[in-house]
């Protein structure tokens, strides 16, 4: 058995930013247009007018101040309200692969290894831009990696579940060096015309290199253990899929084909589930909450993280103990906890413990207990 270690991470951040004010202005223009178009039905009481969104609500309810996206123009155009991305030919890399190459190149440089040394590529994300061939195999080809590659999707927990799969293979010896990459194009999947959720997501890509600790060229984080759990819930759901044209109504742009959630229920049910999961995980490893130097939590909602941090540490965590990045990135699905880890881990001292933890649709929770070397 070998000890798996994280030796490098990388983040691709799209250049385009949408602030809350810009988002709200576009949404309100859309709502006004729809209300004008449906004025008669609204006046007759057959339809409800769309209410305005507000930046104050968004910040207060979520902690989000802005999000990075691949295409700001389409999202902010009240006549479009979704990203518009160039159609690529089958002979050029897809959008997810392009994002992945940037993040992987940074992670490989940090680890000090060449892509040709990688023998496992896992593309773990909430949405794949196509069904097959696997996006991971295209990334493997474009990177020049060896071995094998596959896609996996556990929504917001895709990254931690991917880390568990890679770490287990490194541990057993079936793989020597792996990269887990999370290209999250949440803007393509979000319903920007729905006031309840239009502010939640952003785009990003993260990558994590995992190898045997004995192969590490510099400082690294030993993966002490991983723990994954799932429990079925319809509270975060998306009904898109290849069966859509087989449905009798023939509608291809139904509301439930984009992101749907019951946010209040998610908040209430997931917070205790995650806290209990993290506490059971560290206890099983003989690590006391006081010994945790840092929590790199999933980045969906600031209050949610405040509750979880308090429950796990038994006190209010300092900002330094539980860094948030959601104010700048919004929820980037599986990539959020990895962005936090990538940006806020270099300062840990040898012997320090920390936990990466993601949670979301499924429900799913994944935690990775790390020790700095
Ligand atoms: N502007 C102004 N007012 C608003 C707005 C708005 N934009 N939206 C709602 N309101 C109003 C509501 O109408 C309501 O009014 P009233 O009290 O009169 O009925 C009031 O504000 C409160 O509304 P909510 O109850 O909805 O507000 P909350 O305080 O619950 O906050 C949140 C909403 C922020 C969504 C919160 O519930 C939350 O963060 N919940 C947790 C969500 C979460 O973590 N989800 C995880 C999903 S991600 C995942 O698993 C991956 C999925 C796959 C990726 C998808 C890619 C796109």
TrEMBL record:
Gene3D superfamilies: 3.40.47.10
Protein name according to UniProt: Beta-ketodecanoyl-[acyl-carrier-protein] synthase
InterPro entries: ACP_syn_III_C (IPR013747), ACP_syn_III_N (IPR013751), Thiolase-like (IPR016039)
Keywords: Acyltransferase, Transferase
Chain segments annotated as transmembrane: none
One matching Pfam family: ACP_syn_III_C
UniProt source species: Shimia sagamensis
Domain Beta-ketoacyl-[acyl-carrier-protein] synthase III N-terminal: 150-217
Family matches, as PANTHER family: 3-OXOACYL-[ACYL-CARRIER-PROTEIN] SYNTHASE 3, BETA-KETOACYL-[ACYL-CARRIER-PROTEIN] SYNTHASE III
Domain Beta-ketoacyl-[acyl-carrier-protein] synthase III C-terminal per the UniProt entry, residue ranges: 283-371
């Amino acid at each position: 058995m070998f000890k798996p270690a994280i030796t490098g991470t990388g983040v691709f951040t799209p250049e385009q930013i949408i602030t809350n004010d810009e988002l709200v202005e576009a949404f309100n223009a859309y709502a006004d247009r729809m209300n004008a178009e449906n004025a008669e039905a609204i006046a007759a009481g057959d339809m409800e007018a769309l209410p305005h969104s507000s930046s104050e609500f968004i910040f207060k309810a979520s902690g989000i101040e802005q999000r990075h996206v691949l295409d700001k123009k389409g999202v902010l155009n009240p006549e479009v309200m979704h990203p518009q991305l160039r159609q690529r030919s089958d002979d050029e890399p897809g959008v997810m692969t392009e994002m992945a190459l940037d993040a992987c190149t940074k992670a490989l440089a940090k680890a000090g290894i060449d892509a040709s040394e990688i023998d496992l590529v896992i593309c773990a994300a909430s949405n794949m831009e196509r069904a097959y061939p696997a996006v991971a195999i295209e990334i493997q080809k474009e990177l020049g990696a060896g071995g094998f590659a596959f896609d996996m999707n556990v929504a917001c927990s895709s990254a931690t579940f991917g880390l568990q799969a890679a770490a287990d293979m490194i541990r057993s010896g079936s793989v020597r060096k792996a990269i887990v990459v999370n290209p999250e194009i949440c803007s393509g999947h979000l319903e920007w015309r729905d006031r309840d959720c239009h502010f939640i997501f952003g785009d990003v890509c993260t990558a994590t290199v995992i190898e045997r600790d004995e192969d590490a060229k510099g400082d690294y984080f030993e993966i002490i253990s991983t723990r994954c759990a799932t429990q079925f819930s319809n509270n975060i759901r998306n009904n898109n899929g290849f069966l859509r044209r087989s449905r009798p109504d023939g509608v291809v742009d139904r509301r439930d084909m984009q992101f749907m959630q019951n946010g209040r229920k998610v908040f209430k049910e997931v917070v205790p589930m995650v806290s209990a999961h993290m506490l059971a995980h560290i206890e099983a490893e003989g690590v006391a909450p006081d010994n945790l130097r840092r929590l790199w939590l999933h980045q969906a909602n600031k209050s949610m993280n405040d509750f979880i941090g308090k429950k796990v540490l038994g006190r209010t965590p300092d900002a330094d103990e539980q860094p948030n990045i959601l104010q700048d990135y919004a929820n980037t699905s599986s990539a959020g906890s990895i962005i936090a880890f990538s940006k806020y881990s270099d300062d840990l001292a040898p012997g320090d413990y920390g936990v990466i933890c993601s949670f979301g649709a499924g429900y799913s929770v994944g935690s990775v207990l790390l020790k700095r070397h």
